């Protein structure tokens, strides 16, 4: 009879759970965005209850859809917590996993708890854009973290990256680091724009939204320039018959190019067309996917890490 520590039944689901966790982390960015874009940020007037003495919205003829949207987003947080908890157990109960990965899988649970607290603060400070922005930045960090976990628990064979030129690795690392200013500037643009999350909440960042949009766009163009440099270095390496672990790295690179181009197109469209909420929703989805593919590209240039003893 197997001991609980060996638990082969649950450990077989580690990789699917890691994938589910990543998808849910991206999904909650979208649902959180919908809360803001539909003006449902204060659909529940308090936290953790929806209303004083009521955990869920009370259905009646006069109610609007706002409490349903807000409570739906909170419910997804609960689902996400269950997925992250099962992922944690599947790794901790698997003796073949290293201590490094066992420490890593604690972080989704920890940051989800932090997110719940920040969400509560957001309600109590009437959707202050700085607090809402912190909420978003943590969500993007969770997507990157979840991408690392997927990579680390994946049963796929790792490509040998030892022969990848140092300059290629350096530019990829710069791309990964440059995600931070892109996301932060995007948060500031949003915090200066019209979508506060509630029609009665007027306070936004006191900066020119168009100026911040241009600065944000400039940061993306810096990212595009780094992609161009990377493309040149990869082409030169191939011309010199250097093995760049061709399938994983090339595929990862083109995914980043495709997502960046699509995000740029959506970003420019929404800016010059009055920020329609449907388009902004797709842009938020793109933020999560952008964080995922960029983090994955960075991982593809890092040395192989053994996930099992």
TrEMBL record:
Pathway: Porphyrin-containing compound metabolism. The keyword Nucleus does not apply. Keywords: Cell membrane, Disulfide bond, Heme biosynthesis, Iron, Membrane, Metal-binding, Oxidoreductase, Transmembrane, Transmembrane helix. InterPro entries: COX15/CtaA_fam, COX15/CtaA_HemeA_synthase. The chain crosses the membrane at residues 12-35, 75-93, 105-125, 131-151, 171-193, 213-237, 249-269, 275-300. It holds the Pfam family COX15-CtaA. It is found in: Membrane. The keyword Repeat does not apply. It is a multi-pass membrane protein. This is Heme A synthase. The lineage of its organism: Bacteria, Bacillati, Actinomycetota, Actinomycetes, Micrococcales.
């Amino acid at each position: 009879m197997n001991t609980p520590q060996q638990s082969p039944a649950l450990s077989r689901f580690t990789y699917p759970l890691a994938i589910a966790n990543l998808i849910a982390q991206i999904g909650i960015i979208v649902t959180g965005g919908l809360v803001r874009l539909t003006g449902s940020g204060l659909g529940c007037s308090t936290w953790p209850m929806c209303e004083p003495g009521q955990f869920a919205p009370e259905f009646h003829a006069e109610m609007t859809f706002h409490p349903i949207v807000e409570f739906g987003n909170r419910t997804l947080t609960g689902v996400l917590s269950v997925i992250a908890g099962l992922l944690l157990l599947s790794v901790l109960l698997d003796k073949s996993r290293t201590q490094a990965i066992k420490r890593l899988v604690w972080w989704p649970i920890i940051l989800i708890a932090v997110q719940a607290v920040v969400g509560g603060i957001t309600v109590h400070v009437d959707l202050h854009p700085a607090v809402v922005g912190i909420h978003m930045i943590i969500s993007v960090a969770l997507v990157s973290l979840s991408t690392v976990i997927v990579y680390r628990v994946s049963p796929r064979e790792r490509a040998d990256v030892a022969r990848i030129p140092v300059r290629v690795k350096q530019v990829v690392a710069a791309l990964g680091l440059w995600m931070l200013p892109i996301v932060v500037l995007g948060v500031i643009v949003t915090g200066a724009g019209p979508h506060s999350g509630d029609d009665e909440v007027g306070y936004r960042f006191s900066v020119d939204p168009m100026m911040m949009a241009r600065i944000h766009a400039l940061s993306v163009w810096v990212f595009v320039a780094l992609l161009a440099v990377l493309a040149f270095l990869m082409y030169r390496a191939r011309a010199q018959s250097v093995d760049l672990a061709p399938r994983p790295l090339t595929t990862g690179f083109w995914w980043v190019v495709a997502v960046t181009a699509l995000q740029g197109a959506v970003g420019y469209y929404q800016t010059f067309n009055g920020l329609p909420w449907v388009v902004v929703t797709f842009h938020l989805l793109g933020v999560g996917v952008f964080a995922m593919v960029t983090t994955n590209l960075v991982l593809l240039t890092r040395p192989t890490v053994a996930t099992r003893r």
